[in-house]
Design brief:
34% helix, single chain, 2 domains, TIM Barrel, 18% strand, 17 helices, 21 strands, alpha/beta, CBS-domain
C-alpha cells in the first residue's frame, strides 16, 4: 500500500482515508479470491470477535459455512465450550442446522424458536423423520397452546444430499419452495433454503483437515494458561486466541510461550499446527514483541469498538487505520500477520483494513444484531427487533469472568469497569442474518479489489493507493436516501 501524496504526519481512522482507483484487468468481482494466508484455513478475511453477546455456536457454524471464523470467548465454562466445539464440528459444512420440534410442541414454543436461525422455519420431526414445516405465518392468530401438528405444512418434498447446490437451487425454484429438508437415505442431514443453495455456489466453507467446520477459542493470560490451552486443543479448537485488553504487557509475554508450548506438544501428537493469535496492541514494537514471544497473528486495536470506552476513560488507544498499517508492516517483517480488531461499521472499513495490510478483520457489534448472535430476541416499544450487546470490559462481562472470585474481589473489580454494559443492537430488516451482512461485506471488498486491479488479498495490499480526506470528503461519499 502507498499514499497518493506524502505520508501524513498524524494518525488516521478509516473515516480519514479513501482508496484511489487504479488501472485494472479484473473485470468481475467473482475473479477475486479472498482466502487468507495466516494458517487459519479461512476463505474469507472475516473473524467474529470473542464477545459473549456475539460469538456462540450458531454464529460459529454459520460463518464457517461461508468461509469465516468465530472465536469462542474465554469466560465461557469449559464444559460449555467443549459441547459448543463438538456441535460445531458435527454440523454439516453445507446444509443449515434445522430448528426442530415434535408434533406435540406448542405453537407458542415453536414461535419462540423461529428467531434462533435466519431461515425462518421450524422443522417438525416425527419418529426421526421430517413431517412438517412451521413458519411465522402459520402461527399468526393461533392459540399459543395449540400444538404444531394442527398448523404445520406437511413436508411434500425433500432434497438428496448427493445433489449439487445448483441442482438444489433449481429444484427449489421449480417448485416455488424456499426451504426443504436434506436427506441422506433415511437420515436428516440438514435443511437448505434457496438463498442458502445460491450462497453455496459462491462461498467456500472454512474446514479443518478432516473436512469439518473450523472454530477458534480465546484463552486469558491469568491462571493455568498452559493447562487451559491444552484443554482447548484437546477439544479440537482450530486457532487459539490469547486475549487481553492490553496485549503489550509482561504477563502476555510470559503467557505466550506457555500457549505455544502446549500447541507444539499437541502438534507432535496430532500432526496439526494450530495458529496462535495474541493481542490487543497498536504499535509496531508490540507486534514484534508478541511475534518474538511465539504469536503467529497479532490482534490490532485498542478503543475503536462500538462497545469500548477505553479511549474516553483512559485516553489510551490509537486511530485504527494507522495502527493496522504500522502493525501489519512490522508483523510481516517478523514472519507473522495481523487481524484488525474493531472499528468497522461499513464494508468500506473492512476493505481499507485489508488494504492497510490486515489479513482478516474482526467484527463484533455489527454482528450482534443478527439472528445468529447468542442473545434472545427482544422487541422495542415500536416493535423493532433487537439483541442486547455489551463490552467485554464492562461490569456485566467482568462479573461473568470473575464468577469464581471472592465477593470482595468481585466488588473491587466492579468499581473500575470500562465498556458499555447494555446496548440495543437492532436487526436490519433487510439484512437480519449474519450471512446477509457477509454478503454485503464481501460484495464491497471484492469490488474494492477490482478497483485496485487485485485478484488476491496480497495483491490488494500491494496495489492499494490511499488518500487522506477531510470530514467533508467523507460526508460527500455518503449516499442520500431522500432529496435535499
Amino acid at each position: 500500500m502507498k499514499f497518493i501524496n506524502d505520508t501524513p504526519a498524524h494518525d488516521l481512522t478509516y473515516h480519514d482515508v479513501f482508496m484511489v482507483p487504479r488501472r485494472s484487468g479484473v473485470t468481475s468481482r467473482f475473479d477475486v479470491d479472498l482466502a487468507t494466508n495466516d494458517g487459519t484455513g479461512t476463505t474469507l478475511p472475516l473473524v467474529v470477535s470473542n464477545m459473549t453477546a456475539v460469538s456462540g455456536r450458531r454464529m460459529a457454524e454459520t460463518v464457517a459455512r461461508r468461509g469465516a471464523m468465530a472465536v469462542i470467548p474465554q469466560d465461557i465454562p469449559p464444559d460449555v465450550v467443549a459441547n459448543t466445539v463438538a456441535r460445531i464440528k458435527n454440523s454439516h459444512p453445507v446444509y443449515d442446522t434445522p430448528v426442530t420440534v415434535t408434533p406435540d410442541t406448542t405453537v407458542g414454543e415453536a414461535m419462540s424458536l423461529l428467531p434462533k436461525r435466519a431461515h425462518g422455519a421450524v422443522l417438525v420431526i416425527d419418529g426421526g423423520a421430517p413431517a412438517g414445516i412451521v413458519t411465522a405465518a402459520d402461527g399468526t392468530e393461533i392459540d399459543r397452546f395449540a400444538q404444531v401438528h394442527e398448523v404445520m405444512n406437511p413436508v411434500e418434498r425433500t432434497l438428496r444430499a448427493d445433489q449439487s447446490p445448483q441442482e438444489m437451487f433449481g429444484e427449489l425454484s421449480e417448485h416455488h419452495m424456499d426451504y426443504a429438508p436434506v436427506m441422506d437415505g433415511d437420515e436428516l442431514v440438514g435443511v437448505i433454503t434457496r438463498r442458502g443453495a445460491l450462497r453455496a455456489t459462491i462461498y467456500r466453507p472454512a474446514l479443518d483437515s478432516d473436512g469439518r467446520l473450523i472454530v477458534a477459542a480465546a484463552v486469558g493470560i491469568n491462571g493455568d494458561v498452559q493447562g487451559n490451552a491444552k484443554e482447548l486443543l484437546a477439544m479440537g479448537v482450530d486457532t487459539l486466541v490469547v486475549d487481553t485488553a492490553h496485549g503489550h504487557q509482561e504477563k502476555m509475554l510470559d503467557a505466550l510461550p506457555q500457549v505455544t508450548s502446549a500447541r507444539d506438544m499437541h502438534a507432535s501428537s496430532s500432526g496439526r499446527r494450530t495458529p496462535v493469535a495474541a493481542g490487543n496492541v497498536v504499535s509496531a514494537e508490540a507486534a514484534r514483541d508478541l511475534i518474538g514471544a511465539g504469536a503467529d497473528i497479532i490482534k490490532v486495536g485498542v478503543g475503536p469498538g462500538a462497545m469500548c470506552t477505553t479511549r474516553m476513560m483512559t485516553g489510551v488507544g490509537r486511530p485504527q487505520f494507522s495502527a493496522v498499517l504500522d502493525c501489519a508492516e512490522a508483523a510481516v517483517q517478523a514472519g507473522g500477520s495481523v487481524w484488525a480488531d474493531g472499528g468497522v461499521r461499513y464494508p468500506r472499513d473492512v476493505a481499507l483494513a485489508l488494504a492497510a495490510g490486515a489479513n482478516s478483520v474482526m467484527i463484533g457489534s455489527w454482528f450482534a444484531g443478527t439472528y445468529e448472535s447468542p442473545g434472545n430476541m427482544m422487541y422495542a416499544s415500536d416493535g423493532r427487533a433487537y439483541k442486547e450487546s455489551f463490552g467485554m470490559a464492562s461490569s456485566r462481562a467482568v462479573a461473568n469472568r470473575t464468577r469464581d472470585a471472592s465477593g470482595i474481589d468481585r466488588a473491587r473489580m466492579a468499581l473500575f469497569e470500562e465498556g458499555i454494559s447494555s446496548s440495543r443492537m437492532f436487526l436490519d430488516p433487510e439484512r437480519p442474518g449474519v450471512e446477509d451482512l457477509i454478503d454485503q461485506i464481501v460484495a464491497g471488498v471484492r469490488s474494492a479489489a477490482t478497483y485496485a486491479g487485485a485478484r488476491t488479498l496480497s495483491e490488494f495490499n500491494e496495489r492499494a493507493v490511499i488518500g487522506v480526506q477531510s470530514a467533508a470528503g467523507y460526508d460527500e461519499g455518503r449516499p442520500i436516501s431522500s432529496s435535499w
